[in-house]
Design the sequence.
């Protein structure tokens, strides 16, 4: 259903430069055009423009300081430091400092750019008709000219304080990502080359402690075909660094009839057929826990690497590239099994080949 609209109800005709003349077409939904441009205070008052410039530059400077604070937080706050922040409660001091400083750095760059655009860059609206996606030479040249005009109106070249502080803040922010690489962990230095068995010497050996009973082990208590797990004397489950230490120190203790041990060097490192191998797989460091009594094969449950414990723990199947390191053991005057030194090679994955 349609109704005739009296002419006196139609919107008044507008200036041709701002839109179509509604009265001529009789269309109440015609394009009203753009309102007359109203200059901002910064457009007509250079003091206001300078003040806006200082405000934007201050935001960029704060961003730079926040980025520096982000980097400094890695040095100042230890990873395990906990603080109370209302209303968040107890949180990591390092995480709080990193989040706060990086948030301020990014916010100030964004807020400064927005404030710059709203107060100092040109805000004259320039309507353009839609055109084909592929522009012709005339349009491309026009875009280039508009870009040059926009660059000149933005004051990027003329307002050196703005330009330099923006470049400074944008140059510093990527350093946050570089510093984040520290989250991969501290450099291992020589920590992976040795275990805590390294403290053992022939004059001061370290006892092997059964991980199930937490008692010292005697050779006569280990029967042929059995598999037992051991740890160094003095390492307790309640120790703060227990997980870090046991990841390198854990042992597999097996007893094989001496005549069944194929590798002579392996036989020398053991005691009356009792052999002590690292429990850590040389593929990616999984703990080995499966043992076949008849074949003397130890199997890693993660990727099925298989080691022959009767032949120096050499790899007979799977992705592991090296045998399991063996620990030299003997007995003390009381008959308890002890270690007299560290593994001949680092335990775990074969990183040391590339170091």
Sequence:
């Amino acid at each position: 259903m349609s109704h005739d609209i009296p002419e006196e109800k139609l919107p008044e005709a507008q200036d041709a430069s701002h839109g179509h003349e509604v009265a001529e077409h009789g269309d109440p939904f015609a394009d009203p055009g753009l309102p007359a441009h109203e200059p901002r205070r910064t457009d007509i008052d250079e003091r206001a423009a300078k003040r806006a410039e200082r405000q934007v530059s201050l935001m960029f400077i704060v961003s730079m300081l926040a980025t520096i604070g982000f980097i400094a937080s890695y040095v100042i706050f230890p990873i395990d430091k906990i603080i109370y922040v209302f209303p968040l409660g107890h949180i990591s001091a390092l995480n709080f400092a990193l989040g706060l400083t990086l948030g301020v750095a990014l916010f100030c760059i964004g807020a400064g750019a927005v404030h710059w655009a709203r107060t100092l860059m040109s805000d004259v609206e320039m309507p353009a008709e839609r055109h084909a996606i592929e522009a012709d030479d005339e349009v491309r040249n026009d875009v280039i000219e508009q870009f040059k005009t926009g660059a000149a109106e933005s004051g990027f070249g003329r307002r050196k304080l703005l330009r330099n502080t923006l470049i400074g803040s944008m140059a510093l922010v990527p350093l946050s990502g570089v510093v984040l690489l520290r989250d991969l962990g501290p450099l291992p230095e020589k920590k992976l080359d040795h275990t805590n068995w390294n403290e053992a010497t022939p004059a001061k050996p370290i006892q092997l402690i059964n991980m199930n009973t937490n008692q010292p082990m005697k050779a006569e208590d280990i029967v042929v075909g059995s598999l037992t797990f051991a740890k160094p004397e003095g390492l307790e489950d309640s120790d703060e660094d227990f997980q870090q230490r046991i990841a390198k120190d854990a042992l597999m203790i097996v007893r094989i009839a001496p005549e069944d041990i194929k590798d002579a060097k392996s036989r020398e490192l053991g005691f009356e057929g009792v052999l002590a191998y690292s429990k850590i797989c040389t593929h990616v460091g999984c703990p080995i826990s499966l043992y076949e009594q008849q074949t003397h094969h130890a199997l890693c449950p993660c990727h099925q690497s298989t080691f022959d414990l009767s032949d120096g723990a050499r790899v007979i199947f799977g992705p592991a590239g090296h045998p399991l390191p063996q620990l030299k053991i003997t007995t003390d005057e009381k008959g308890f099994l002890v270690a007299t030194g560290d593994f001949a090679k680092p335990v775990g994955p074969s990183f040391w080949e590339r170091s």
